[in-house]
Design brief:
The protein has 152 residues and is an all-alpha fold. It is 62% helix and 0% strand.
């Protein structure tokens, strides 16, 4: 019997889990109201911006013909478009979506899952991907890393 490798939760799954945690914290442990209505509606702008950045970055991968899923063999190093400003625009977009949701909820407790999400993405994905890309693209990736920041 062939054994399948363990499934790795992909970052959007962690984002959905973060949204679920935010919702639960907002509803059951709302702590303090930090963003009052109507200012909380600004969260929608962050959500739309996050979706746009993530979609644009994914489109750049598709255009380059390289896989989007973490740790699949990359066929191209994408350094144009949104990748000129951040090495991780898809992850940045997911963070903006979470931040937008927290702003819309408007309570302090809704912000608590965001640093946990960033930590998970940083440790489980970004640091490993950087090592992987360094081995795969060598000096080309190191030069890119020197020019463009990890987040912003």
């Amino acid at each position: 019997m062939e054994r399948k490798p363990p499934r790795i939760l992909v970052p959007p799954v962690y984002m959905v889990l973060g949204l679920m945690a935010m919702t639960a914290l907002h509803l059951f442990v709302p702590l303090a109201r930090t963003v009052p209505v109507p200012w909380s509606y600004a969260g929608a702008v962050l959500i739309v911006l996050g979706i746009a950045i993530t979609a644009t970055a994914a489109g750049a991968f598709a255009h380059a013909g390289t896989p989007i899923r973490p740790f699949e063999p990359s066929t191209a190093l994408v350094t144009t478009g949104v990748y000129r400003y951040t090495r991780n625009p898809m992850y940045l977009g997911l963070v903006l979506i979470l931040l937008g949701a927290a702003v819309m909820f408007g309570t302090l407790s809704a912000f608590l899952p965001i640093p946990i999400f960033v930590w998970i993405i940083q440790t489980r994905f970004i640091l490993r991907e950087e090592q992987f890309l360094e081995k795969l693209f060598g000096q080309q990736y190191l030069d890119y890393k020197c020019r463009v920041r990890r987040w912003l």
